[in-house]
């Protein structure tokens, strides 16, 4: 029986090493890696070592993600309403009212993953958490600062100034990442909130350092998020015919 060469590795080990090398190459040259890791581990240190409330830490994760979604909707809704043909001759009051209504409707519909996360993590049923929210003004100040930061970031993305393809790509990139955050809160919900905080901190680090890989694992090529089903069908090569040429379809393709 021949012996295995000393440098030979089994396929699982090679795959794991390739995965690790690929991720390492993705962050090579980035100067904010340590800052991203340290910032996301602050809630973990607080809960584990400083006796912070794990449920309040979970509420912070939830609100940060949901307020980011609200900020994106606030950044894109006014321009979308202005460009609607039905409101071309409408007065400013009607446009403002329509913008608020559309924003609230989209916040309710697109925010469904976050409402589910609120229930799965037990925050919705926690009287202690909501009593703290109702009585602690510093939590409201913190919430306002978080929303202001998220709104400033959403405005800096300049959604309204992008063409249709770039807008869909950028908007879906940002929203899909927020959806993954909500799904992570649901997936890693545990009876012990401190364990959920630790798991979510690791997920947030991964999403922030490797967003393209996270999106690609769920939605395919992260550079083609802008593509709808019609775009994918047009991008597919035509099926070869018996003569080796793609079948062309046009207005008169069925007429001889």
Defining key terms:
256 residues; mainly alpha; 11 helices; 69% helix; globular; disordered C terminus
Write the layout of secondary structure elements.
Layout: H1 11-27, H2 33-49, H3 54-82, H4 92-110, H5 112-120, H6 127-135, H7 137-156, H8 164-187, H9 193-209, H10 211-219, H11 229-235
Helix pairs in contact: 2-9, 3-4, 3-7, 3-8, 3-9, 5-8, 8-9, 9-10
In short:
With 256 residues, this protein is mainly alpha-helical. The protein is built from eleven helices and no strands.
Summarize the structure in words.
This protein is mainly α. The chain has one domain. The protein contains eleven helices and no strands. It is globular, with a radius of gyration of 24 Å.
Bulk shape: globular
Low-confidence stretches: 247-256
Q: Please trace the helix and strand order, writing H or E for each element.
A: HHHHHHHHHHH
Number of helices: 11
- Level of helix content? 55-70%
What composes the largest sheet? Answer: none
Question: What is the number of beta strands?
Answer: 0
């Amino acid at each position: 029986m021949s012996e295995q060469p000393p440098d030979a590795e089994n396929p699982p080990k090679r795959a794991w090493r390739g995965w690790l090398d690929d991720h390492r190459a993705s962050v090579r040259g980035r100067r904010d890696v340590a800052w991203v890791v340290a910032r996301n581990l602050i809630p973990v240190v607080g809960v584990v070592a400083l006796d912070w409330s794990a449920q309040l830490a979970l509420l912070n994760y939830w609100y940060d993600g949901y307020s980011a979604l609200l900020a994106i909707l606030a950044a894109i809704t006014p321009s979308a309403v202005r460009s609607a043909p039905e409101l071309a001759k409408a007065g400013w009051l009607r446009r403002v009212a329509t913008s608020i209504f559309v924003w609230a409707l989209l916040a309710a519909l697109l925010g469904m993953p976050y409402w589910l996360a609120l229930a799965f993590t037990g925050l919705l049923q926690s009287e202690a958490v909501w009593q703290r929210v109702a009585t602690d003004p510093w939590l409201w100040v913190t919430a306002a600062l978080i929303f202001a930061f998220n709104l400033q970031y959403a405005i800096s993305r300049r959604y309204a100034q992008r063409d249709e393809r770039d807008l869909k790509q950028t908007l879906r990139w940002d929203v899909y990442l927020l959806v993954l955050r909500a799904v992570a809160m649901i997936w890693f919900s545990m009876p012990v909130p401190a364990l959920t905080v630790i798991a979510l901190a690791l997920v947030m680090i991964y999403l922030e350092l490797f967003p393209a890989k996270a999106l690609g694992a769920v939605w395919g090529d992260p550079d083609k998020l802008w593509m709808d089903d019609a775009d994918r069908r047009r991008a597919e090569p035509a099926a070869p015919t018996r003569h080796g040429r793609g079948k062309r379809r046009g207005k008169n393709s069925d007429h001889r």
